[in-house]
Amino acid sequence: MSDSNNSIHEPCKACAQENARFRCGNCKSIWYCSKECQKTDWKNHKPNCNYDAEKLISIVVVNGDEVFDQKVPKFEVDPTNGWIPCVITEMIGIPVMVKRWAPYTKQPHRELGIFYMVDPVSGLAGTEWQMGCGVIAFAQMNKTDFPVQLFWDLYSYIYTLMDYYGDENFDYEKFKKNQLNYKSFREYQIEEHKLQGIID
C-alpha cells in the first residue's frame, strides 16, 4: 500500500469513505482509507490486481496552482467515464478531455482549468468553471501520455488567444481558420520552446 499526497483521491473501495489516501501498491488503481480496509477487500480485489506498465498512462492533475503528472491505468481515461471534451483543444488538433474530482467554489485562487474550457466562439468558460474548478485532471482522448509540458504549451497558447476576443472587430470565422488549428499552435509551440531553451 502506498501513501500519496499528490494524487486523485477516490472513495475507499472497502467502506466508501471519501478521499481515501492509500492505494494498492501493486496495481495502483484501487484506493483505501486504511490498511485494515485493504485487508478486508483483498479477497475481492486479488483476482483483478494486475500491475502492467503497458496499461498505465500519464495524465495531468491540477489542484489550484499545483500541476503535476499522475500515472493511472488506461481504463480510467475512458471517455465515457465522466470525462468532458475540451472543445477548443480539439479544434487546435490535440483532443483533450477533463475530469472533475472535487468541485468547489472557494475563491480567490488561480484556476488553470478555465482556459481549457472556454467556448471558442465567445472566449468565455461556463460559470461552473469560473466559480472554482476544484481538483481536475486532463488526459488525451487517444489514451497516450499527456506530458505536463504539453499541458503548459496548450494553456499558454489558449491564454494568448484571449487577446483576439477583446478586439471590437473580432471575426470568429477568420479567427477559427487562422488560429484554431494545429499548424498555428505548433508554430507558437516551437517559438516558445526556443525561448525557454527546450529541445523538441
TrEMBL record:
One of its GO terms (cellular component) is nucleus. PROSITE patterns: ZF_MYND_2. It comes from the Eukaryota. One of its GO terms (molecular function) is DNA-binding transcription factor activity, RNA polymerase II-specific. Residues 12-49 form the MYND-type domain. Keywords: Metal-binding, Zinc, Zinc-finger. Transmembrane segments: none annotated. InterPro entries: TF_DEAF-1, Znf_MYND. Gene3D superfamilies: 6.10.140.2220. Pfam families: zf-MYND. This is Ectomycorrhiza-upregulated zf-MYND domain-containing. It comes from Brachionus plicatilis.
